[in-house]
Amino acid sequence: MEASPQAARKDQRARLFRIYNYYRIVISLLLVALLLLETDLVGTRLHNEWLFQATALTYLAMNIVTGMLLLAGYALRPWHITVSILADILMIHLLAFFSGGISSGIVNLGIISVAAGNILVPGRVGIFYAALATLASLVTAALLLLQGLSGVDDIVRAGVMGLIYFAAAFLLQNITRRLASSEQLASERARSIEELEQLNHQIIQRMHTGILVAEPNGALRMANAASGELLLGERTAAPRLTILPQALKQRLDQWLEQPGERTPPFQARNDTPSVQANFMRLDSPLEHLVLIFLEDTGKIVQQAQQLKLASLGRLTAGIAHEIRNPLGAISHAAQLLGESDTADDGDRRMAGIIQRHSERVNAIIENVLELSRRRSTSVRLMDLGEWLAGVVNDYVETVQEPVLIDLKLSGVPGSARFDPSQLQQALTNLIDNGLRYSRQRTGRLQLTVRTGVTEDGQRAYIDVRDYGPGLNEAQQGSLFEPFHTTEQEGTGLGLYLARELCEANQARLFLLESGETGCCFRITFAHPGRRALDFSASGANLTGNEP
């Protein structure tokens, strides 16, 4: 945590006083050394050698004790500085009194003491130091004059010293105020720059656009939290990214070779969204680095899905009636053929085939109509645990056969923004699909439904795992294509419909590589703070926004 301006000034004052005390110790040592060497001080004669020696030794002892206290970490207070400056002025003038008066060079040391006092404790106290030093000089000169040890000219010298004291005080007061003002201005600017830097950092980290700074070789210099979500599937303050993923590195190389071309979108992993990368060089002196913007194409995909559904709806509405009329006639004719008394077993078998395939075609039409029906999306924030428990219970009650659905709710509460009816429709398709394949392998209608949150704790998910035979690589490649099915009776629209509904709500449905028996489909929801787009029946209108 950064120190406050008051604490910084206090520390600076302590450092300056420590330096000043070193100066005091050196001066007092020089005075004692001159006495030991029996040398005249500044060409003058001592009036009272014994008192001069006692004063010099006392001054040295006082400074040494002060230095030891400072070294021991004694807390310095303003009155300690005031007492030290007053003691210096008193000691210096006593030494001057015992060594020849104002004409002695010792009295000049008082200028440094007054200057130091004005630097360490600026304000009116500094003027008091100058006044006290002037008074001490005049008293010293007057006492020596009364004793006949000096002349009237020492009074004049004392007055001149007083002027010097006040000049030094006023000059240093002015300099100190200017320095304090400059220091305060610099501190305010530094604080403003720091706050601006923190603000920029928070804005970058909270953006839903991924921002990366990378070297041309793919080494990362900086990555925000959104980039971790788009590339790793987890939103953290410091994404675990040190180098660019291979797919993004390929697009960076492509952009470096042809800067004018736009690179195609990519998907780093199955559980991450499709991402569009844009590149640009930084300005000097960082022109060797590349700034990368990662945009989630989910909104574009969502809008495209809605437009596709709208177009499909117009097409389906136009042909559904024309298909259903002859289909109904075919189904009715097959039923009559099967009930005819003249029909043999072969005819009844053929009538049954016609009846089943008529029902399959009708189911395809129903699914396409449901897929393309343009109704207003009602997105709301849901508690997945509570909602999912109710949906599973309703499903089990509506099925005539015994169904075993193992519902595992995460201890961490998960929230998601979704249209409840559309989520129920997508989940029902996944459950129907899973139960059907589980019965193929185990002979029982059973599966597991699990909820949880991603590693970054930002997004919820639902897993639907069956106990079927699983899928090979060729089947996985066309898993979500419309009208693709591995069963003769299937329509091939269940998974396609579920994925379309998820993408329309900015969620992702994919096959999870779990390494367990059967298949596990995962629905990963968008961040609960991200609102989905709402397209009303009158057309595509954007009513949601992303904070």
TrEMBL record:
<dbReference type="InterPro" id="IPR036097">
    <property type="entry name" value="HisK_dim/P_sf"/>
</dbReference>
<dbReference type="InterPro" id="IPR036890">
    <property type="entry name" value="HATPase_C_sf"/>
</dbReference>
<feature type="transmembrane region" description="Helical">
    <location>
        <begin position="50"/>
        <end position="72"/>
    </location>
</feature>
<dbReference type="Pfam" id="PF00512">
    <property type="entry name" value="HisKA"/>
</dbReference>
<feature type="transmembrane region" description="Helical">
    <location>
        <begin position="21"/>
        <end position="38"/>
    </location>
</feature>
<dbReference type="InterPro" id="IPR003661">
    <property type="entry name" value="HisK_dim/P_dom"/>
</dbReference>
<dbReference type="InterPro" id="IPR003594">
    <property type="entry name" value="HATPase_dom"/>
</dbReference>
<dbReference type="InterPro" id="IPR004358">
    <property type="entry name" value="Sig_transdc_His_kin-like_C"/>
</dbReference>
<keyword id="KW-0597">Phosphoprotein</keyword>
<keyword id="KW-0812">Transmembrane</keyword>
<feature type="transmembrane region" description="Helical">
    <location>
        <begin position="155"/>
        <end position="172"/>
    </location>
</feature>
<feature type="transmembrane region" description="Helical">
    <location>
        <begin position="128"/>
        <end position="149"/>
    </location>
</feature>
<dbReference type="Pfam" id="PF02518">
    <property type="entry name" value="HATPase_c"/>
</dbReference>
<dbReference type="InterPro" id="IPR005467">
    <property type="entry name" value="His_kinase_dom"/>
</dbReference>
<keyword id="KW-0418">Kinase</keyword>
<keyword id="KW-1133">Transmembrane helix</keyword>
<keyword id="KW-0808">Transferase</keyword>
<dbReference type="Pfam" id="PF25323">
    <property type="entry name" value="6TM_PilS"/>
</dbReference>
<feature type="domain" description="Histidine kinase">
    <location>
        <begin position="318"/>
        <end position="529"/>
    </location>
</feature>
<dbReference type="GO" id="GO:0000155">
    <property type="term" value="F:phosphorelay sensor kinase activity"/>
</dbReference>
<keyword id="KW-0472">Membrane</keyword>
<protein>
    <recommendedName>
        <fullName>histidine kinase</fullName>
        <ecNumber>2.7.13.3</ecNumber>
    </recommendedName>
</protein>
